[in-house]
Automatic annotation (TrEMBL):
InterPro entries given in the database record: Beta_hexosaminidase_sua/sub, Fn3_assoc_repeat, GH, Glyco_hydro_20_cat, Hex-like_dom2, HEX_bac_N, PA14/GLEYA, PA14_dom
Domain PA14: 625-763
Protein name: beta-N-acetylhexosaminidase
Keywords: Glycosidase, Hydrolase
Gene Ontology CC annotations of this record: membrane
GO MF annotations in UniProt: beta-N-acetylhexosaminidase activity
One biological process term in Gene Ontology: glycosaminoglycan metabolic process
Recorded catalytic activity of this chain's protein: Hydrolysis of terminal non-reducing N-acetyl-D-hexosamine residues in N-acetyl-beta-D-hexosaminides
Transmembrane portions of the chain: none
Catalytic residues in the record: 333 (proton donor)
């Protein structure tokens, strides 16, 4: 069952003090946590009279600080050259005092007399970002900064965040806003995914049809691409960046010490380009159109001389625009059907004495790598570029778990870790699937992101050196708006920044959660859309007991908690929570608590839902059957809730000894109700749970125990019930609206005193 860990009231008081910079929390609220921090006595008072002294007044980091203080704090501080003479009431920005400091590192010292930030290049900028985090959110004519000494530098040299602008397009101004967030949390790489099946987003002057045709799709899929009844919105979608816009974004990023890695996909994910220039395919006689749905497309580049010349021309223009050492060439999810059917490809495989189509892909990547290398650059590819043999100088981005990264490091190739299994796919869910916005699936709350270690223990010390860093990916199949991009990024970006920057020994999730409220308050004040956590202490559960104890605190000061106990959803017109209380649950009844958090800027959290039942243990029912297995009824139809199944026509029925739904998947969309009797050997509290995509409910003796309902991605949820010894009626309602192979139904049961185990249909009787 899904639960949000609670913080005690005394801990909340500590958080409130952190926000007001009045207590000495070890890291002073800074994210990512520094390498070394020592708090000292006294405060520095920043005012209009404070002077900024810099080695170079033209330094972009220096200008960034001066502009920030003017725009955000209305402080017009005079900017002067640093002569090295001691000064009071000054912020000193210098490269002096950086001896022995690691790359991108800085030293920050705040005394009552002055603030000194020592750093070179990016290091000075990151010291400024730390200083900015120490500034209070609310202020008057002066701003007080705590006394502190910090020495800091990153754990990894590559700290990246990706954005897919192909599935849905986002304009240059929003990309700049995205870059601002990355820079604020000391990330140094923006991976810009510019081409894919659903849209070509970069102007290439030699091939104008790439944007004239390839940047526009006629319509977009509604809902999941695995839906058994696909529908489309009928609305054209498109957009691209001119080369002038790209130059402007590159400069903007560089001013914030962000390197942009462009991605030009090949040989797969190339349908938009093929729609513009069909001669890039293995069958130019076909009619192609820009992709309107998601998933893997079978039409890929054909490895002809025309294609290689085309890609070299494209990459020449890309390399002329982007100063990045790395050029990302994709290489992932390349179906081989078109190559297998192509007479040209089969002859080429024989001519080059390649083993198979995987070898042909390796040939393709290696040939493009030689070209990129000839331009003084290096390629990055997704871990599929390992298949058929790795290009000699390639860096591998390991996304299908860590196996690709481990294999590449063992071959002495550089690696960037970005596995979905590590919580680094920010298009995955952050909470209960039935109540989160539509996503591709998966589950990656910030706690999972935070716990990820990019350096696999199976690698030797020498091999670990090839792990350059870590990256999170934000794919936008199900992200059509700027607000949703921010919602999916925040606050997970904060956890990622600590994974990328902070030494492993300094990481502490509990301390991170102490620092998080201040940053949520900053997001709220700055107008960002973000996933607002539920109230601390609010849980989603169905449990048994005689009381419901309610002890809540908001995620940050200023946010308010509203609640209901009548089953209706809470909001600003319902009860305002202002003190702990206890709800007694009379015998034979239940109590239901729903809560929501609303911030000063109007952001709302998900609604929490806790139900406590004080009904007596369910008495056994009369049953004397001995045949193992469950009865089933299959209904055909499109369902959004499991309770809709009862009224649907039955198209099949029988008895099975497994909860496998493989036999029912021939139906475009279906639901199934399983019924039987489960034997309980001892009185006690029993827990049931389901894990599946789409909706499932479990009822024991017609009482709902598990409500893992609605159309959603793979998710695990459960509840508990008191049962007396004997047989009890078991009902499982499940529907599947999507055709995904990931939709495997799992049923779990926890017997008192034993760990959770998977419940077999064979242990139920009919």
């Amino acid at each position: 069952m899904y639960k949000k860990s609670a913080l005690l009231v005394i801990v909340w008081l500590i958080i409130a003090n952190i926000v007001n910079a009045q207590v000495k929390e070890p890291n002073l609220g800074i994210i990512p946590a520094p390498v070394s921090i020592r708090q000292t006595n006294g405060q520095f008072v920043l005012s209009q009279e404070t002077v900024i002294l810099a080695d170079s007044t033209e330094n972009k980091a220096v200008k960034f600080l001066a502009d920030f203080l003017l725009n955000k704090y209305a402080l017009k501080n005079q900017l002067k050259a640093n002569t090295g003479v001691a000064a009071n009431n000054a912020i000193i920005l210098t490269a002096s005092g950086t001896d022995g400091l690691a790359p991108e590192g800085y030293r920050l010292k705040i005394t009552p007399q002055q603030v000194t930030i020592a750093g070179k290049g990016a290091g000075l900028f990151y010291g400024i970002q730390t200083l900015i985090q120490l500034l209070p959110l609310e202020h008057g004519a002066t701003v007080k900064l705590p006394g502190v000494e910090i020495e800091d530098y990153p754990r990894f040299g590559y700290r990246g965040v990706h954005l897919d602008v192909c599935r849905h397009f986002f304009g240059a101004q929003f990309v700049k806003k995205y870059i601002d967030l990355l820079a604020a949390y000391k990330m140094n790489t923006f991976h810009w995914h510019l081409t894919d099946d659903q849209g070509w987003r970069i102007e290439i002057k030699k091939y104008p049809r790439l944007t004239q045709v390839g940047s526009q799709r006629a319509q977009t899929l509604i809902g999941k691409y695995t839906d058994r009844n696909p529908q489309y919105d009928g609305t054209p979608h498109g957009g691209y960046y001119t080369q002038e816009e790209i130059k402007d974004v590159i400069k903007y990023a560089a001013d914030r010490y962000i390197n942009i890695v462009p991605e030009i996909e090949m040989p797969g994910h190339s349908l938009a380009a093929i729609a513009a220039y069909p001669q890039l395919s293995c069958d130019p006689s076909k009619t192609y159109k820009v992709g309107e749905t998601w998933g893997v497309v079978s039409d890929v580049y054909c490895p002809t001389e025309y294609t290689f010349n085309f890609l070299q021309d494209v990459l020449t223009e890309v390399i002329d625009l982007f100063p990045s050492k790395y050029i990302h060439i994709g290489g992932d999810e390349v179906p081989k059907e078109a190559w297998k059917k192509s007479e040209f490809c089969q002859k080429l495989i024989k001519k080059l004495k390649l083993k198979d189509e995987h070898g042909l892909q390796s040939y393709f990547i290696q040939r493009m790598e030689k070209f990129v290398n000839s331009k003084g650059r290096s390629i990055i590819g997704w871990d599929e570029i390992l298949e058929g043999g790795l290009a000699p100088n390639a860096t591998v981005m390991s996304w299908r778990g860590e196996a690709g990264g481990i294999a590449a490091a063992k071959q002495n190739h550089n690696v960037i870790m970005t596995p979905g299994s590590g919580g680094l796919y920010f298009d995955h869910l952050q909470g209960p699937a039935s109540r989160e916005p539509i996503s591709i699936g998966g589950f990656a709350p910030y706690s999972k992101v935070y716990s990820y270690n990019p350096v696999p223990a199976v690698l030797s010390a020498d091999q670990q050196k090839y792990i350059l860093g870590v990256q999170a990916n934000l794919w936008t199949e199900y992200i059509a708006t700027e607000d949703k991009v921010e919602y999916m990024l925040l606050p997970r970006l904060f956890a990622l920044s600590e994974v990328a920057w902070t030494p492993l020994a300094n990481k502490d999730l509990n301390n991170f959660e102490l620092r998080l409220p201040r940053h949520l308050a900053w997001l709220d004040k700055a107008g960002y859309t973000y996933r607002l956590p539920k109230a601390n202490g609010a849980i989603d559960t169905m449990t048994v007991g005689t009381q419901l104890n309610v002890n809540l605190t908001p995620p940050f000061p200023g946010a308010k908690i509203y609640y209901t106990i009548d089953g209706f959803d809470p909001g600003e017109t319902t009860l305002l929570y202002d003190h702990p209380f206890t709800l007694d649950v009379p015998e034979g009844q239940f109590r239901e608590l729903k809560t929501v958090v609303i911030t000063p800027a109007g952001h709302t959290s998900l609604v929490s839902h806790a139900m406590v039942s004080n009904k007596p243990a369910l008495a056994p029912v009369s049953f004397d059957g001995t045949t193992p297995g469950v009865k089933y009824k299959v209904m055909s139809g499109i369902f959004t809730e499991a309770n809709q199944l009862e009224a649907a026509p039955v198209i099949d029925s029988g008895v099975v000894k497994t909860f496998s739904t493989a036999a029912f998947k021939k139906n475009k969309a279906y639901g199934v109700i399983y019924t039987g009797y489960i034997r309980i050997d001892n009185d006690g509290k029993y827990l049931f749970a389901t894990k599946q995509g789409d909706g499932a409910n479990i009822l024991i003796d017609d009482q709902t125990v598990v409500l893992n309902d609605a159309k959603h991605g793979l998710y695990h949820d459960g509840g508990e019930v008191l049962l007396q010894k004997g047989y009890h009626k078991f009902t499982l309602k499940y529907f599947e609206a999507t055709a995904s192979n990931n939709n495997v139904l799992h049923i779990y049961m926890t017997i008192p005193g034993k760990p959770q185990g998977e419940l077999s249909a064979e242990s139920i009787y009919n």
